[in-house]
Amino acid sequence: MMGKKMAEEKINKPADPNNLTDGEKKHIPIINVPETIVAGEPFDVTVEVGIIPHVMEEKHHIEWIELYLNDKKIRRAELSLENKKAEATFTVEADKSLAGKESKLRALENCNIHGLWEEFMTIKMS
Predict the structure, then answer these.
(1) Contact of 56 with 83, CB cutoff 8 Å
(2) Cβ count near 85 (within 10 Å)
(3) Each residue of 80-107: pLDDT tens digit?
């Protein structure tokens, strides 16, 4: 499994975003951002895995969460079983040039059993 290239790995998406299964509800990343975001000033983004919180057990857990801003990787947070919750907080430093423009946040996470899942959010900075 480790030798597999990331590009080849399928990213799971809900079959019907308006009618999620319990499995989908446990794997879709939830992106939480501040109400006000100012370009040029750092802000924190918390990514939680699952509308129904994902378990963090030896046999079934989230291995890592990544956050991207406009396709640029911010960081990967490696999770361990000591993480009681499948979540990570990232500090994002968005360039002043993004002020007034729509930007895209992308959260990507990997479940040791159910693979890759992603979610997107559009944000606008002042």
Answers:
(1) yes
(2) 14
(3) 999 999 999 999 999 999 999 999 999 9
Give me the sheet containing 43-49, strands edge to edge. 29-32, 43-49, 87-92
Alpha-carbon distance 115 to 118, whole Å?
10
Residue 79 falls in which region: left (phi positive, over 0), alpha (psi -120 to 50) or beta: beta
**Domains, the chain, ranges and CATH?**
37-124 (2.60.40.730)
- Residue 74 corresponds to which tokens in the numbers above? 């911010």
Instruction: Count the neighbouring beta carbons within 10 Å of the beta carbon of residue 15.
Output: 9
Other Cβ atoms closer than 10 A to 86 = 23
CA distances to 9, 42, 49, 78, 103 from 126, rounded to whole Å, are 36, 13, 28, 31, 11
